[in-house]
Amino acid sequence: MTHSNRMTALRRWLPAIGPVLVAAGCNQLAPGVNPIASDPPSYATYAAPAVDPAVAAKPWRGGQASEEASADGELLAADDAGGERYIARQFPQPYSGSLPAPAAAPQPGYQPPPTYRSPSYQDPYGSNQPPSSYQLPPSIEQAPPPSTAYPAPPPSGYVTPPGMAPPPQPADNISSPSDALPFYPGGPLADSIYGPPGSLDPYLGAPTGPPVYTPNTRMADLELTGVPARTGRIMFGGAVNSDAGVTGQITVDERNFDIMRWPTSFQDFANGTAFRGAGQTFRVEAVPGSLFKRYTVSFADPNLLGYLPISLGVSGFLYDRRFQDYDEERLGGRLSLGYRVTPDLSLSAGVTGQNVKIHRPRILGVPELDNVLGDNELYTGEFKLTHDTRDSPFQPSEGHFLELGYERAFGDYDYSRYEIENRNYLLVAQRADGSGKQTLSLGTRLGFSGRETPLFENYFAGGYSTMRGFDFRGASPVVGGVQVGGRFQWLNTLEYMFPITADDAFRGVAFVDFGTVERDIEVNRENFRVAPGLGLRVAIPMLGPAPLAFDFAYPVTKADGDEKRIFSFYMSAIR
To answer: Which of 92, 217, 245, 348 is within CB 3.0–4.6 Å of 290 for a Cys-Cys bond?
Structure first.
C-alpha cells in the first residue's frame, strides 16, 4: 500500500517537473561551448544559433572577454544584457597576438549583393559591376592603399624586449625602402627584417637571419686523352722567277725542338723524344740554284726564360749570288733578341757579323767596284720596330705593315742606315660570304745610307720584288757600265686586286710602280721611273700558300741606261 501511494505521487509530479529538468540541462549544454578546444575560434566558419534577430544584432563582446580573461585560461561567461543564456569562448594560453577584428554587423535593412566587389576591383570581363550611381554606405569604408613609406620610428621611451631585433631607424635622405641600402646578409636592411645576427625568433626560438643559398658543388675526375701533333717535317720544293732563275729547296724543320734534351740512347731517336719538347724551332735549309744559292741553319726560342714574350734567334748562313757585273759570297752569323709588346707590335735588336767576298768582276777600272774586290769584314748592329695588322702575309686584304729600322755598321766600313717600310691594305668590296675580295694597296720603301756605304750594301731597283717593267737591278745608277746602286731609295707601288673566278683561284691586278734610286740623298726628275701594268694571280693550294704571279709592265718614264723587262713572273712549289 505504501509503495502504491509513492508511485501515485511520483506520477502526479513528474509531468510538472520534467520540462524544468530538460530546460536546465539544455541551458548548460549551450551551442558553441567546447571546453577542450586548442585553437582560437574562427569567425569565418562560426555560425550563430537561431535566436531572436534583436539579440543577434548585438555586437559580440569578444574584445571584452579578452581583457577580462584570467591568466590560467579559464572559461569566461559573458552575460547578455537581456538576461539571455551564457556564451563561453576559450583562447589558448601561449597565444599572445591580437585577433583580427570581426566584421562589422550590417546595418538594419541593408544587405550587400552576394556578388559585390569593391569599386577598385577591375573585372576583365565587365560583369558584376555595381551601378555608376552606387555609393558605399557610411558604415562601410574602403580599405586605404598600402603604404610604401619607410616605417615610422618607435615612440620615445620604447624598450626592445630581450631577444627581439631593434626597430629600423630611417635615414635622413631615405623616403622609401627602395632608397635604402642594398639587401645583403648582415646589412642594415637585413638586420631590420631578420634582426641582428644571433638574435632569436620570439615565436620559434630559433636564430633569425636571411636565407643563405649555397650552390651545389659536384666533383668529378676529368681525364684527357690527346695525340701529339706533327711538329717536324721535311719539305722539298723549287721555284723559278725572273730575278733569281731556277732554284730548288730542301728544308728540315722542327717546331717543338728542345736543345737541352740530349739523347741517352738510340731508342730516343727511334721514338722521337730526342731534342724535342720545349717548343723551340730548329731549321736547316738548302736552296741551290742557277744564279742564286743559300744555305742556312737557324735556331729560335719564342719564349725565352719561361713564358715571357722575349724571343731569341741564332742563325748561320752561306749566300752566293751571281750578279751581272760580279759574284758575291757572304758567310756569317746573326744573333737577335725580340720583344712582343702586343700581338701586333714588336721590337727586335740584333748583331750580324759576316765576311763578304767580291770576285770575278766583269769590268775593271770602276772605283766603286775595285774598292770592294776581295774579302770585306762587315759587322752591323740593328734595331727594328714592327707593327703588323695584316690578315694574311701572302694575300692580305686588310691592315697594314709598318717597319722602322736603324742599322749601324762597323769593321772595314763605318756608316749608318735608316729605313722605313709601310704597306697599307684597304678592303674595297667582297661577297656576302667573305669571298671575292677587292683590295687596294699602297706600299712605300724609303731608305738613307751613309757616305762610306760599300757597293754591295747600296740600294738597287728593278725586277719583280722592287720595280716591275725593268730588268733585275736595271733601274739603278750606272757608272762605267757597272750597276753601282745608290745611298738613297724611294720606291712605291699602288695596286688594285680583284677576283676573276667565283672560287678566287684566279685574280687580276692593276698596278703602277714608281720611284727612284739615287747615288746621293736627292730626287732627280731625270731619274724618276713610272711603270704601270696588269697582272694575274693563280692560287694552287697543292703548290703552297704563295700564288703564282705573272705581270706585264711598261715603263713610261725612265733614266738613261735603264734596262727594261716587260714580263716578270714568280712561280714556286713546296711540299
So the answer is: 245
